[in-house]
Design goal:
This protein is of the alpha+beta class. Strands 18-22-23-30-27-26-24-25 form an eight-stranded mixed sheet. Strands 2-1-7-4-5 form a five-stranded mixed sheet, sandwiched between helices.
Length: 652
């Protein structure tokens, strides 16, 4: 007898082994038609899987989040089948689902693939979809699998990696060993080594599109052969795909690299180096405004500013444990000692804490430092400000007693809420609470008591501050639990920005202590916190979030002053001088252009207010102010300055 427990707690019993699809049919024929895959005891499986022992079963349809990745993985197989039908000598390599679609890499031999071939391949894919082929699981021994791919050295390499258990992370979907042998998925003449699961039939792929062809080295190794990579995306419904491309079009308009050039925010110099952005006056001003606001929020909460150098002896990072991870990072050869450009700020802050004798009465100790660290990122991964090699973290570390964790976390949460409310990203967000895997407590540093206290403190703070959190087991770092804040921008894209991380590791490694009530040495808990995260990445996010139309306090140029005729220039300069004296960022345009053209240029620069001065303004001692909504209103200069000051102060 096999008992299957469904998500609602109900149970179904079968006299012997039963397939997932047969369980679905026993519930309803409609569910069987819609079933994409299943979770057996929480593990994804295809609908052909046979259940032989008591298990929990969750049937997945297109409504489940996980099913989209399954659809896209199946689309990659349909893509490969189409390519092999059109180019029989092509050699397939790997073809995973990705965050926004799928790809498959091919060695085309003497053939070339160009963007013009996408339409032909897509047409063949549509034929395969129309054929509505069954996608069936099958198994082959290692020898038979190697023989099946006898003309494909790439798949043979993967098979040997599976056998030797050296499969790389990006290849994990390419195969799995079962009792019956290596797992394959077959659809008509096409069969491919694969972990799965897959949709039951090719006909379930209703909405897809091939997007582009690029080149990629086998396994990302520049010493190996360059392959053709065909990218595509897939959705359950055409309307979802249309919405996706509408979002992409909007994202292109908002691209911070494009806006960064147009608004003179930053530049990348080949002589300085990729991933090392140079901030122009507009960008430098924005950075300073963000840093100043962050400091305003922290100084009233008891934080103290510190400063640390950009490099340190390698021994510091060996002690902290960062060296093994960053040993390929930028190193500096000194006359007598070897140094490293700092990849993290925290080891430096540990040394500041260690240089003082603290008692329990001094705790917590809170440090704040927007400091630049350096990571030797792969050049192909660099992207404007979103991925750089010089990373300015709005870093903060506080040292506290275990019984202070909850209160300190609540203080940080308050800062995060205030900050992101001003940014306009607090309406739709969630928080990931990452805790230990209860099944492997031995993998985590620190006592069970400390872990329990830290996890409870983070969760209690999340509850008390009404955070929309999800508790995720097994996601904690080995040195402590954490809260990651996931915010959405104006067009719905999700970004992980703020974070709060408990750490039991560094106090151990650096032998940090304070004197407790019993006059005994006790190790503090370190809490890492970042509000904006990397300032560079944060600036890329908010540039796209606002589409360059920043609120007044962040705008590179807040006011543009235009004259209608030359006789108005003197008055424009007087207004400019008074506004600059009030610490506003002002530019003028006295070019011999028509007023409408000047206005259009100012609007393209996305300034907050356009001040237009003509005869009536001089006669009435007023300023004509055009807002971003294209309305124009007259103020006295004093009234306008008051309005600006109130808006800047409120950071609206």
């Amino acid at each position: 007898m096999v008992t299957v427990t469904l998500p609602d707690g109900s149970k179904k019993e079968y006299e012997g082994a039963v397939s997932v699809i047969d369980v679905a049919k026993s519930i309803s024929e409609g569910l069987a038609r819609d079933a994409v895959a299943a979770k057996l005891n929480g593990i994804l499986q295809d609908t052909t899987t046979t259940i032989t022992t008591d298990t929990t079963l969750e049937l997945l349809t297109s409504k489940n989040e996980e099913s989209l990745s399954i659809l896209r993985h199946s689309a990659a197989h349909i893509l490969a089948q189409a390519v092999l039908r059109l180019y029989p000598k092509a050699k397939r390599t790997i073809g995973p689902a990705t965050e926004n679609g799928f790809f498959y890499d091919f060695d085309m031999g003497e053939e070339n693939l160009t963007e013009k071939d996408l339409e032909k391949i897509e047409t063949e894919m549509k034929k395969i979809v129309k054929e509505d082929l069954l996608i069936e699981k099958e198994f082959k021994s290692f020898d038979k699998a190697l023989d099946f791919y006898k003309d494909n050295e790439y798949k043979q390499e993967i098979i040997n990696s599976i056998k030797n258990k050296t499969l790389k992370e990006e290849e994990e979907q390419e195969g799995e060993i079962a009792e019956e042998g290596l797992q394959f998925y077959k659809q008509a003449e096409y069969s491919d080594l694969c972990k799965g699961p897959h949709i039951p039939r090719t006909g379930m792929l209703k909405a897809f599109k091939l997007e582009r062809i690029t080149r990629a080295y086998w396994k990302g190794d520049a010493t190996k052969k360059q392959l053709y990579r065909v990218y595509g995306t897939a959705f359950w419904k055409k309307s979802d795909m249309d919405a996706y491309y509408t979002l992409l079009d909007e994202a292109k308009k908002r691209d911070h690299r494009k806006l960064g050039r147009e608004m003179n925010i930053f530049t990348i110099s080949e002589l300085v180096g990729a991933g090392l952005p140079l901030f122009k006056p507009n960008g430098a001003m924005m950075r300073k405004e963000i840093e100043d606001y962050l400091w305003d929020l922290h100084k009233i909460k008891g934080y103290k500013r510190v400063w640390t150098p950009h490099l340190a002896k390698i021994d510091l990072y060996k002690t902290s444990g960062h060296y093994d991870h960053y040993k390929e990072n930028f190193q500096v050869k000194g006359k007598d000692e070897d140094f490293m450009m700092k990849p993290m700020n925290c080891p430096h802050h540990m040394q500041i804490f260690a240089d003082n004798h603290h008692s329990y009465k001094d705790m917590p100790v809170r440090y704040f430092e927007p400091a630049t660290v350096y990571r030797d990122e792969l050049s192909g991964a660099l992207s404007g400000l979103a991925r750089v090699r010089s990373i300015t973290q709005d870093d903060g570390h506080l040292f506290c007693r275990v019984d202070q964790i909850k209160e300190e976390v609540s203080i940080i949460v308050e800062i995060i809420k205030v900050f992101y409310e001003k940014i306009g990203m607090l309406e739709d967000y969630w928080v990931r609470l990452s805790v230990r895997d209860p099944n492997t407590p031995e993998e985590y540093l620190g006592s069970d008591d400390k872990w329990e206290a830290a996890e409870t403190a983070l969760e209690d703070s999340a509850k008390e501050n009404n955070l929309p959190y999800k508790r995720i087991e097994g996601e904690a770092a080995f040195y402590g639990p954490k809260l990651d804040f996931m915010f959405k921008d104006a067009i719905g894209r999700e970004w992980q920005l703020a974070t709060i991380q408990c750490d039991f590791n560094l106090p151990e490694r650096f032998d940090l202590f304070y004197t407790n009530e019993k006059d005994e040495k006790e190790k503090p808990v370190v809490i890492h916190r970042a509000i904006a995260g990397s300032l560079e990445r944060f600036m890329s996010v908010i540039t796209e979030h606002y589409a360059g139309k920043f609120p007044l306090w962040l705008s590179p140029v807040q006011i543009k002053i235009l004259n209608i005729a030359d006789r108005h220039i003197e008055r424009c300069k007087e207004i400019e001088t008074k506004l600059i004296a009030k610490d506003f960022r002002v530019e003028t345009n006295f070019e011999h252009l028509t007023t409408p053209n000047k206005i259009r240029l100012a609007q393209a620069e996305k300034v907050n207010y356009i001040v237009i001065i003509g005869d009536k303004d001089i006669e009435n001692k007023t300023v004509s102010v055009r807002s971003r909504d294209n309305t124009t209103k007259q103020y006295t200069l004093e009234e306008f300055i008051t309005k600006l000051e109130e808006e800047k102060e409120s950071r609206k």
